[in-house]
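Predict structure. Chain length: 457.
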Amino acid sequence: MASGEPSLAEVCKTLQNVRILRLCFCDVAGIRRLRAVRLPADNDARTRFLQDLTQTGIGMCVACIALPAYGDVAVPGTGLDAVGEIRLCPDWPSLRCLPWKAGHAMVQLVMRNIDGGTWDMCPRSALKRAAGELAKHGLRMECGFESEFILYRKDSQGKRVPVDKSVYCQETAFEDMADILDEMTSCLEEMDIGIVQFHGESSPGQYEIVTRHCDALQAVDKLLETRAAIYGVAKKHGLIPSFLPKVDNKVAGSGCHMHFSLLEISTGKNLFESVSNLSKVDTAKPTFPAQLEQFIAGVLRALPAVMMLTVPSPNSFRRLVPSCWAGCFIIWGVQNREAPLRLTLMPTNEAGSFKTTNMELKLFDGTAQPHLGVAAVISAGLYGMAKALSLPNPVQIDPVDLSEVQAAAEGVFRLPTSIPAAIDGLSSVPGYSMMTEVMGKDLLNVVMVVRKAEYDF
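Prediction complete.
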């Protein structure tokens, strides 16, 4: 649907040919879940049903937001168990009819307390809170995502195997799956999800669909809808998609790189467009607007904490291998794909001149709860603005090529290499206190307890 809160009449009109409405949410383990309802055929009954659904939602046990990836069990230490209920209420601007499944629609949910107030553990509400804090500085975030996934088929023995054995951007890989990729991207366009590009990726059977940037909350909702569309279309053709970060240690993993920009609310101007001195990045640091540099510096300093919301699973850490373009060190760079924070460049009409529109965060994958991941990035940026931090010089080589003396002199350090190490160090990470303040201490505790339980399983 169009941005802004739609009226009940507009919701009814969108759903006029829909029989089944999927009420969707993503839990802290990054698993997409849903409840489904059948809509009454009678128009008056349908209107009353949707009005009640809007006002009171449907009930769910509080523990269900904190189930680990390995099973439907309440993890001790989250404070969430069999006692207590929340209400799942549709956030109608996210309503989408499903092109691959006629008569079905999906909508993302807001989690509310039984009295109607916002539940502190609601991931979408955490992102809304973070965006609200950023708005107090006159700024808003836009972002887009690169969705990487591997397509599998079953061989004659019923074993899952990749659909091909191709390499990066190989033409035959695209041609073999052209009809399916066409259907996937056509569905996304029908759902108002813009496509930047799509192509074969490095691993056997691996593909990437890059979706266009938009407001942070919309972008995350559209990321989840993109995964639903990829799965739905693939299943129609007897294929199985996987968004896991690392399914085989011998080949490249699948990320979900996030590209973000900061815009002035009053003017709509992208602050990245004011970055200058981009033609001499090997000898001089680019010049940033003050707020933008502070924001990026905050994200950089807080990466050891941010990563527990963006690459948070045991499988995530298998992908974070040096010299594999995964971003394993606390650095930033200009067009350096070994940096977890990469300033992107594009040419201008003037020879030898460049411009930028966004920063890429490579530390993001399909096991993250993406609302919480983006909220963590914003919170870290707010920390940088509160402390007026500045960026160090960009690192323009693979950091493993630095000697120990050089790395120490330039402040280049490896990110945590395991979930226990990352969690144990959280209290000393710059910016983590801002994350707890913005996102909620109890919510972050739930995330860390669940992720540690997944590691221990």
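Summary: The chain has a mean pLDDT of 95.
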